[in-house]
Automatic annotation (TrEMBL):
This is Serpentine receptor class gamma. Coiled coil: none annotated. It is a multi-pass membrane protein. It holds the Pfam family Srg.
Length: 316
């Protein structure tokens, strides 16, 4: 365990208020079907025959990342808010000692990875306009893909070295699940997140606007460019969703200095942060359904086939 100044929380003695219970119920209502959509779209695009375009490799990577992000938020943040679910965390820590310490760091890792996953989709569409005859070969190269993924993982982890040690450490002590919180490291981490939120927001907005303008100008409304325009709409919509997630991080960071948010908002800050994260994490399947005809047709065809098969089985 770190020797830095810390305070201890016994996770088995947490209490839950009505607001948290209501927020959790809402998160489950939209979260369960949205997680199912993430998984279905990932399987569909992974095995489907209509998704040979290199853009869909990035979509698969995004979908898989978002599945991991969403599941990790339950382990790292949400379950510990509820006394009745802490036993799940204790079971995980018993089976894999030290794992909860890592799980509680991973949201900060995914904060940075979310920028890269969003930026790559936008960069792909930007390159399809600027390098119309070369972009597909570049994005289809497995060597380039592996290099990009390695760079993303490294860049998503490097900001951790801007603060010292872990932000939280979780252990089982005397048969109790204990979380050590390190306020100095947390304060530094919040500053890092605030700084990168501003950088990412500006970069994301610039790339999104540039892509939208260039695609609109160069592709026009010709029917031969329908596929390209639809993929671009997916990328830009996804980029916009990410921008709004960042907006809450920026507001939070500014509030840590100016304290302009009312106490009623600050009290539910963690829940609002989770909602903001979910708004981006769970959004991609809906953008695909809205703008990608292949996904819409394949998904509803499979759903319809499954429904018919079930009805036949029941009638038999």
């Amino acid at each position: 365990m770190s020797t830095a100044e810390s305070f201890i929380v016994n996770l088995e003695e947490v209490t839950v208020d009505t607001k948290t219970e209501i927020f959790t119920a809402i998160q489950l209502i939209y979260g369960i079907p949205s997680l199912a959509m993430l998984i279905m779209c990932f399987i569909l695009i992974f095995f489907g025959k209509n998704y040979g375009n290199s853009f869909y490799f990035l979509v698969r990577f995004d979908l898989l990342t978002n599945i991991c992000v969403y599941l990790n938020t339950w382990i790292a943040i949400r379950l510990e808010m509820h006394p009745n679910t802490v036993f799940i965390l204790k079971a995980i820590e018993s089976a894999l000692p030290g794992s909860l310490t890592i799980f509680k760091y991973i949201p900060y890792f995914f904060f940075h990875m979310h920028f890269w996953t969003s930026a790559l989709l936008t960069a792909h569409r930007l390159s399809s306009v600027l390098f119309i005859y070369k972009y597909e070969a570049f994005w289809s190269s497995w060597r380039n893909r592996i290099i990009m993924l390695i760079i993303i993982f490294i860049c998503s982890h490097l900001p951790k070295y801007l603060w010292t040690g872990w932000l939280f450490e979780v252990y089982i002590v005397n048969d109790a699940l204990i979380c050590y919180n390190f306020p100095d490291a947390l304060k530094d981490a919040y500053k890092v997140v605030g700084f990168f939120s501003i950088v990412y927001a500006i970069t994301n907005l610039t790339m999104g606007l540039l892509t939208a303008c260039l695609v609109s100008k160069k592709l026009g409304s010709k029917s031969t460019n329908n596929v390209s325009r639809k993929l671009t709409r997916v990328a830009i919509s996804y980029s916009a969703a990410y921008f709004f997630e960042l907006l809450w991080s920026v507001i939070n960071s500014v509030n840590s200095y100016l304290n302009f948010l009312p106490d009623s908002i600050v009290e539910i800050d963690i829940n609002l942060l989770v909602f903001a994260s979910d708004g981006f994490t769970l959004s991609l399947p809906y953008f695909l359904l809205a703008f990608d005809v292949n996904v819409k047709n394949d998904l509803f065809r499979k759903t319809k086939t499954s429904t018919i098969a079930t009805a036949v089985a029941i009638s038999i």
